[in-house]
Amino acid sequence: MARTKTFVCLGLFLSVFGIGNVLGDDYLPKAKDITWSSHNFKTLLSWNPIPTNYSYTVELYGTGTEGERNPNCIQSMSTECDLTKLFPELKRTYYADVLSETLPGFTVDLVEFPYTRSESFCPYTDTLIGRPDFEIKDSEEESKITLHIIDPLSAIYHAERLLNMRDIFKEDLTYRVVYRKAKSTGRKIQTTETNHIELEVDRGESYCFSVQAYIPSRSRDMQLGDLSHVKCSEARQPSILDEYGIPVLAGTCFIILLLIIAVCAMIMACCKCCQRAKEEEKGKPLEIV
């Protein structure tokens, strides 16, 4: 009986002095500014403000699924949660609830904790694709260069290995190649549906290349991935044929041939003159002194 009277008095005291609101919404502020950040399927959820005397719990929901929780994001003091491993279907649309809860070991008399819901997120269409790598290979024909593109790795594990972008996007993944002459600012753009592309180039010129993922099925602002580092091919030493061309070389050869013929004709003419002079010299009678 004495215990009951104590609780009643405590309740009246809290009501009179307004302390009862400490356990309401002011005590558990809702999360604000919830944002998704996803790069190569490494997906983080972040929000504000930093908690003081309360914690946050994150629940992830997809179409037809119950709330999933990352053990590291339950009654946590952090304002960021890694949800990378909680997406069973990458093409499904998800949203997250950030619940404001009491600290571990504390309780509060609420039907449900206050929460804020994020915007929807689909890993397949919303993750940013990082820069790919590529190798430059000279073709047998000096007027062509081949690029071999290496798919960026994702943060998704399957069968104990990291999947790359081709594993995930398959035929949806294409690559956009931007290239130019090393000594020029004018650029050209080509696309390829595979990891290889052969480009027409001028003989003997050095070219610079950069590559990025391109997914036409996405919304326009999410179609292009990060641009790769620029790589340049070595300038090939042009041959005489590449340098001057067949017409010039043919003309030069013709002129040289004419000069040879002219020189030979002059030599033959000189020889005939000399021979004639000798014959005339022999035919003259000897003078008697």
Automatic annotation (TrEMBL):
It comes from the Eukaryota. The chain crosses the membrane at residues 244-269. GO terms for biological process: blood coagulation. Residues 127-234 form the Interferon/interleukin receptor domain. InterPro entries: FN3_dom (IPR003961), FN3_sf (IPR036116), Ig-like_fold (IPR013783), Interferon/interleukin_rcp_dom (IPR015373), Tissue_factor (IPR001187), Type-II_Cytokine-TF_Rcpt (IPR050650). Residues 9-101 form the Fibronectin type-III domain. It is found in: Membrane. Initiates blood coagulation by forming a complex with circulating factor VII or VIIa. The [TF:VIIa] complex activates factors IX or X by specific limited proteolysis. TF plays a role in normal hemostasis by initiating the cell-surface assembly and propagation of the coagulation protease cascade. GO terms for molecular function: cytokine receptor activity. It comes from Paramormyrops kingsleyae. Keywords: Blood coagulation, Disulfide bond, Glycoprotein, Hemostasis, Lipoprotein, Membrane, Palmitate, Signal, Transmembrane, Transmembrane helix. Belongs to the tissue factor family. Its main location: membrane. The lineage of its organism: Eukaryota, Metazoa, Chordata, Craniata, Vertebrata. It is a single-pass type I membrane protein. GO terms for cellular component: plasma membrane. Residues 1-24 form the signal peptide. SUPFAM superfamilies: Fibronectin type III. Interacts with HSPE; the interaction, inhibited by heparin, promotes the generation of activated factor X and activates coagulation in the presence of activated factor VII. This is Tissue factor.
